[in-house]
Amino acid sequence: MLERLTGIKDKVINWISCGSFGLSLICLCIGLDKLFRYKNGDVYPYDLHNAYVGGDAYNYIINGNYATACFVLATMFVIIGFGVLVFAYLKQAYSEPTVKNEPAETETPNFQVEEL
Q1: Distance CA 24, CA 8 (A)
Q2: For 17-41, what is the mean pLDDT?
Q3: pTM of the model
């Protein structure tokens, strides 16, 4: 029973870690999209992409702030993913019973000490 429960816990920890790294990748892609893909739509038909207000400078400032927020979220998810992995590793390392290494038996030579 305990082995099955430990296996389920390991799977949950692995899924949480993988999910955190996946969310980090999604946030990174969204941030790069906000940073590099901008189209104001000056000509008809208007095709706006990451344009919110009339001026280009304002849109660049807004997209820069959005990109910064997404990069911070991506970094946070990476830290959470590695934190979960380190926590699982330390939990496993401290829960295993330590085997005490006993010194190997050495043969003592049969010396006879002669008295003078």
Answers
A1: 24
A2: 92
A3: 0.71
